[in-house]
Amino acid sequence: MLTTNARYEGVTTARTFKQAFEQRRCLVPLSHYYEWTGEKGHKTKWSFARNDNDWFCFAGLWDRAHTSEGTIESYALLTTAAGPDVVPYHHRQPIILERNEYRAWLDSGALAPSAIQPAQAGLLKIEQAKSFDETRRLVMLGDPRGHS
Questions:
Q1: Which end of the chain is more exposed for a tag (fewer CB within 10 A), N or C?
Q2: Residue extents of the structural domains in the chain
Q3: Closest C-alpha to 121, from 91, 83, 89, 92
Q4: Which CATH number fits domain 2-140: 3.30.70.20, 3.40.525.10, 3.90.1680.10, 3.40.50.720?
Q5: Under 8 Å CB-to-CB from 46, ≥6 apart: which residues?
Q6: Per-residue pLDDT tens for 81-117?
Q7: First and final CA of the chain: distance in angstroms?
Q8: Please, are residues 45 and 126 in contact by the beta-carbon 8 Å criterion?
Q9: Are 25 and 105 spatial neighbours (Cβ–Cβ below 8 Å)?
Q10: What burial class does residue 96 get, using C-beta atoms within 10 Å of its C-beta: 0-12 exposed, 13-18 middle, 19+ buried?
Q11: What are phi and psi of 132, to 5 degrees?
Q12: Model's pTM, two decimal places?
C-alpha cells in the first residue's frame, strides 16, 4: 500500500489524480496525525487531534494498479493551505471533513473544489508528541493510552 499527498488545487487537472478524483474518493479515518518542525536532527514532533478528542476523517483518493509484480493499492491524502491552527507548524494541511460532509465527498462531483476550506480556528488541539520510548514506558506502567 502506497500513500502520498495530493494538492487539492490540482487534482482536477493532474493526470495522476484526475480519474481518482472523479471516480474513487475515500475517507481516511483517524484520531490524530503528526507534523514535525525544526531542523534536521533536531525536529519536534507535534500531535494534532480534534479538541473534543473525537475521531475524524481526511478527504482521500484511492487507486489500484495491476503490474507485472502484482496489484498495487494506494491512496492519497488531499491537502490544502494550512488553517489558523496549523500555520505555525506547516504551510499545508490534510483536508479535514466534518461528518455532515462525508456523503457529499464520497458522491463524486457533489463537492466543488471551491467548497474545501482549511479547518476552522479552534478545531484542533496541538500538543508536543511523546517519544516512542516515553509512550512505551507509560504503557508498561499500566496506562494503555500512554497518558500519565
A1: N
A2: 2-140
A3: 83
A4: 3.90.1680.10
A5: 34, 35, 36, 37, 89, 126, 127, 128, 129
A6: 999 999 999 999 999 998 888 888 898 766 655 567 7
A7: 34
A8: no
A9: yes
A10: buried
A11: -60, -45
A12: 0.80
